[in-house]
Amino acid sequence: MKKSAIYPGSFDPITQGHIDIAKRCLKIFDNLIIAPGKNDEKKPLFSIEERVDQIQKSFTQYSERVCVVSFEGLLVNFAKEQNVFTIVRGLRAVSDFEYEFQLSTMNKKLDHRMETVFMMTSDKFNYLSSSLVKEIASQGGDVSCFVPPHVLKELKKRLKK
Ligand code: ADP
Questions:
Q1: Which residue among 18, 51, 89, 134 is the active-site one?
Q2: pLDDT of 94 above 90
Q3: Residue 79: in which H helix or E strand, if any?
Q4: Which of 23, 80, 92, 150 is catalytic?
Q5: pLDDT on residue 134
């Protein structure tokens, strides 16, 4: 049986840190569903359609094993819809741990089939987050090594407005 997992997140925008986690997951799982959450309360810079498109363009070589599906509402409901109960999350600093621990425990309480697998960040990306990328880019800093070229282009365009 094929092993599948869901990698949920905001991906606003997708960074090399996310891409690294997803590619390493593909060594463990046969298929990966990358799932940007709509999450309008977080006031994302990019719309859900833009984020789906940015993620898809980052995984064109993996199109047979990676699919990008956005979701709204509870992750457990999305997991049920997809019939995939393994969740992948990345861990950077210790500060990620507390929130992720709470989230994974809550997901399990909501549905006992939910299992969360944590991937440690690669050391070259442990400082990297979408919010920092947006902050640096908005101040005119160079973020070209943190995001793929197509995302860099869109960031520049968006922040010029
Ligand atoms: P969320 O708002 O759900 O935290 P993010 O897009 O910020 O969404 O992150 C999605 C997941 O990817 C989280 O588990 C986060 O810890 C992980 N992640 C983000 N950036 C990195 C990175 N540089 N290295 C490893 N994991 C990361």
A1: 18
A2: no
A3: helix 75-82
A4: 92
A5: 96
